[in-house]
Amino acid sequence: MDQFSYSLGVVLAQNLTNQGISDFNTADLVVGLEDVVKNNSLKVSPQEADQIIQKYLKESASEQHGAIMKTGEQFLALNAKRAEVIVLDSGLQYEVLREGIGANPKPEDKVTTHYHGTLIDGTVFDSSVDRDEPATFPVNGVIAGWVEALQLMKPGSKFRLYVPYNLAYGEQGTGQLIKPYATLIFEVELIQIH
User: E strand or H helix at 72, and its extent?
Assistant: First the structure.
């Protein structure tokens, strides 16, 4: 039983550290575990506990990734001053590199695109162009910045998108390269509407 209990502690600690949680009071953690297991009166309800944890994680992520967010905000502020850049109310910025012809896609349409995605420092994180393999997907099945931009494009259009974190992968980020609060740049060519 001692090895089993210890193993539970190891797995719990690994799960916490994998989520970026390493700064906590182990004595209070043990009390919380015991109170639930022994059916003692809880100092906070499960709902309050969830709210406290979510608030802590959000503040922690904001502190940890604040520099990324600030760099993105500064980049977008400077970029917005360029004459060729169009800034939408949502915060999405774009340049028309080539105008297409025809109808604009609707949210429920499928589209085929070629794209090249980078961080603001130029690091490539994904590129259908590099793979030489266009991507087909529903307009409303991608990040918010793309959903908005695709509906402004006509087949044959090529836009450069400057996507603030809240219209991209938000506070979570995704994959190895796209950190939380990352501003992203995409060159997107709308090939076809299905």
Answer: helix 46-79
Whether residue 186 lies in the annotated active site: yes
24 belongs to the catalytic site:
no
Q: Is residue 56 among the annotated active site residues?
A: no
Within 8 A by CB and 6+ apart from 40, the residues are 34
Look up 115 and say whether it is catalytic: yes
Domain locations in the chain?
2-65, 74-193
**Set 21, 35, 125, 191: catalytic member:** 125
Catalytic pick among 169, 178, 185, 193: 169
Topology annotation, domain 74-193: Chitinase A; domain 3 (3.10.50)
Handedness of CA 63, 179, 147, 109 (dihedral sign): negative
pLDDT in tens, the chain (194 residues): 789 989 988 999 898 888 778 888 989 999 999 999 999 999 999 999 999 988 887 787 777 788 999 999 999 999 999 999 999 999 999 999 999 999 999 999 999 999 999 999 999 999 999 999 999 999 999 999 999 999 999 999 999 999 999 999 998 899 999 999 999 999 999 999 99
In this prediction the pTM is 0.74
Active-site option among 94, 126, 178, 181:
126
